[in-house]
Amino acid sequence: MPYEPNMYDSHMHSTLCKHARGPLSDYAAQAERKGLRGITVTCHSPMPFGWNPNVRMTVKQLPQYVDMVAETRAEYAGRVDVRLGLESDYLPGMESWLDDLHRRYDFSYILGSVHPQTDEYKSLYLEGSTRLEYEKSYFENLANAAESGLFDCLSHPDIVKIVHPQQYKVAEHMYTIRRALDRIARAGTAMELNTSGVNKPYREMNPGPEILQEMARRNIPVVIGSDSHDAHRVGADFDKALQMLQNAGYESLSYFIDRERRELRISEVFLAELQPRLV
Q1: Which of 45, 91, 107, 192 has the fewest Cβ atoms within 10 angstroms?
Q2: Domain spanning 8-268 has what CATH number?
Q3: What does the pLDDT look like over 35-82, one tens digit per residue?
Q4: Do 145 and 252 form a contact (C-beta atoms < 8 A)?
Q5: How far is CA 66 from CA 70, 86, 232, in A?
Q6: How far is 181 from 187, CA to CA, in rounded Å?
Q7: What are the pLDDT digits (tens) for 72-108?
């Protein structure tokens, strides 16, 4: 039975983050080819104190970013629903900065990220600690991010596994992970299934199946995102992600419009990889 296009890709970047390629119109065009209903652009947020400036826009560039998304939205009106989002880094103590930042524009979706691979994070949590303590800090900070109430969804859960990919073992952290997921479930924050992990040093989506199953047991909503830094990856591996969700026990997935969560039954998803549209 054919379905109308009804799925969003809820994670992608612009050139303002300094490590993505191509105009946003290319991302929207790929979404149209894939048969997606819409995309949400979620470029890396500005951060205070000179926090890893080489991978994010500056505060002064934020209006430019908003205009870039608005121009693409207007260009693709009636074809692809282009939404303004933001991927904001979380660390304890930055709550007031982020709260002010998120109020500056009418964002449709806010992703909360903990990036343990940055030099700044390592200086806070890795120096003087064991690898296991450092990895534990990541999962605890994911829960802290959820409890802050600042975010709609937590991006690429378990991305800490790319830092020491040869040594990381999810089984070593399951007690910490289950406690963190209990806190996230109580906070009501969604979590992402990020398809870009298959191209990273630990070749597995974020999160992996063990964590995804624990999320399903707690009824934590899941949003799928490609984390595209190049237009060709928009909607990439969504068929595999949907199968992973079903295998974990999910019957539906989520996306956000104007900061409100909406649900879509997996059985009703239009799989454009199987039925590409001609444009």
Answers
A1: 91
A2: 3.20.20.140
A3: 999 999 999 999 988 888 999 999 999 999 999 999 999 999 999 999
A4: no
A5: 6, 10, 22
A6: 10
A7: 999 999 999 999 999 999 999 999 999 999 999 999 9
